[in-house]
Each structure stands twice: as structure tokens, then as C-alpha cells.
Write a structure and sequence with these properties.
nine-stranded mixed beta sheet, 5 helices, single chain, alpha+beta, 2,3-Dihydroxybiphenyl 1,2-Dioxygenase, domain 1, eight-stranded mixed beta sheet, globular
């Protein structure tokens, strides 16, 4: 499905920072069918799927950006709510005004205001970003922060096992998830955002990833909405894979 725009408060774009852009491009081309173009954009067919940012000597990580109509106001709101601005607002070469921030509990995310690119141009099909999750031990703090910055509200889901998975929504639209970590896990796992890609046949994709140097952290398991696995790519960036159950597929 081709996507042409995103309302404010909706995760819209992801970028991979990596110390080895060539190796990362080969890995995700094989795993998700992407092609890296001359502007360091991963493309699914002819549509922008995600960005690629070479960082020689730096860590590898996937970063999720949330859409804003006014990035200056959104950054100011984040600071007022206790967040930390990690980068100035810049003109991102992929086509937006962008800034990187950290929420009060330590999770890093981006804010994106479109100039020529609204965000990912593909969604709702294999090879696209499917979902974004916050893992945190501070549910109330996350609800307050993201509610103030993006007008998100949260609710406990009824489709995920246990009582620790919440869904953020804005303007009656579910936009992201929140997994509440137990105190024991939160003492070992930093608060973080994690993106998940939609695929067909998660076990086969997980095996393919491992054969090309990745590690499987979770699964494949039944996650309520589909079969899920969590992967660390060969450069060290974490991401999820999911094959959605029929009732959760778009369209």
C-alpha cells in the first residue's frame, strides 16, 4: 500500500545508523527485498521504505521518527515535559526537518516535519515497517510525556497475553505500542523504542537472518496479533519481525 502522508503524532519514518552501510544494505536487501539508492534510502520496489545513515565507528541502531506539523513546537513541548534534545533541528537529506530526542526514562526517538518526504511511502505489506513499540518500566511517566508532546492516550490491549501491553492512540487511531517491563527486567534492560517489520513466514526469515550473521533474541512466538521474532542484525541493530494474523492485516 502506497502512503502519501502522515498526521501529526504518527510514527512516519525510520532510519538505520550503521558503521558499515554496504554490509547493512546487503543484509536488508536479502531479508526484506530492499534496494539502497544513491541517496541512502532503502526502497521497496520504487517506494521509500526507510533511511540509511552511515556512521563510521558508531553504533548501529534503528531510530523511529514521529510526525509533527511544527517541529519547533514539538521539540519545545518535549523539553517542557522533561525530555532531552540530543541533536539540533536539521534539514535531513532524505527530505524533512528532523531532530533526535530522549524521553525522561532514556528512550531515544526522532521528530520529523516533512519538506519533500512525508515519511515511508509503503505500509501494510511485507517488507514495510509495521509497528513501533516502547519498552519501559515507567508506564505513568511514558503516558504523561508522550501525552503532552503528541497528545497520545494509552489503553491496555485485549489481544496480547498478560497485562503489560498497552496501545498508544491519537485522534482515534492506534499509532504505537508500549510494553511495560517488570522491575526486575527494567533493572537490566534500558528503556527503548523498537521497530518491527512485516514479513511472510517469520521462522524462515529468522533463519535467513541468522545464516547471514544475525542473532535471534526472541521467538518465533505467538504474540497475539501474529507470529513474532526479535533480531539483532550483524552490525548490532535490534528490530522485530512479524507475520500478522489475518484479522490484523490492513485491507
Amino acid at each position: 500500500m502506497r502512503v502519501r502522508g502522515y498526521p501529526a503524532g504518527v510514527p512516519c519514518w525510520t532510519q538505520l545508523t550503521t558503521p558499515d552501510a554496504a554490509a547493512s544494505a546487503v543484509f536488508y536487501a536479502d531479508l526484506l527485498g530492499w534496494k539502497r539508492d544513491d541517496a541512502d534510502v532503502f526502497r521497496h520496489d520504487d517506494r521509500a521504505a526507510a533511511g540509511l545513515q552511515p556512521v563510521p565507528g558508531g553504533p548501529a541502531a534503528w531510530l523511529s521518527y514521529i510526525a509533527a506539523d511544527d517541529i519547533d513546537a514539538a521539540v519545545s513541548a518535549a523539553a517542557a515535559a522533561g525530555g532531552t534534545q540530543l541533536s539540533p533541528i536539521v534539514e535531513d537529506p532524505h527530505g524533512g526537518r528532523a531532530a533526535v530526542l530522549r524521553d525522561p526514562a532514556g528512550a531515544v526517538f526522532g521528530i520529523w516535519q516533512r519538506t519533500t518526504l512525508a515519511g515511508a511511502q509503503v505500509a501494510g505489506e511485507p517488507g514495510s515497517v509495521c509497528w513501533t513499540d516502547l519498552a519501559t518500566g515507567d508506564r505513568a511517566g511514558a503516558e504523561a510525556f508522550y501525552g503532552n508532546v503528541f497528545e497520545w492516550a494509552s489503553r491496555l490491549t485485549d489481544y496480547s497475553p498478560g497485562d503489560n501491553y498497552y496501545e498508544f492512540s491519537t485522534h482515534a487511531r492506534a499509532v504505537a505500542g508500549m510494553r511495560v517491563l517488570t522491575p526486575e527486567i527494567a533493572s537490566r534492560v534500558p528503556t527503548h523504542w523498537l521497530i518491527t517489520f512485516e514479513v511472510q513466514d517469520v521462522p524462515a526469515h529468522a533463519e535467513r537472518a541468522v545464516a547471514r550473521g544475525a542473532n535471534v533474541l526472541v521467538g518465533p512466538v505467538d504474540a497475539g496479533v501474529g507470529v513474532y521474532s526479535q533480531i539483532i542484525d550483524p552490525q548490532g541493530a535490534a528490530f522485530g519481525l512479524i507475520e500478522l494474523a489475518e484479522s490484523f492485516k490492513v485491507g
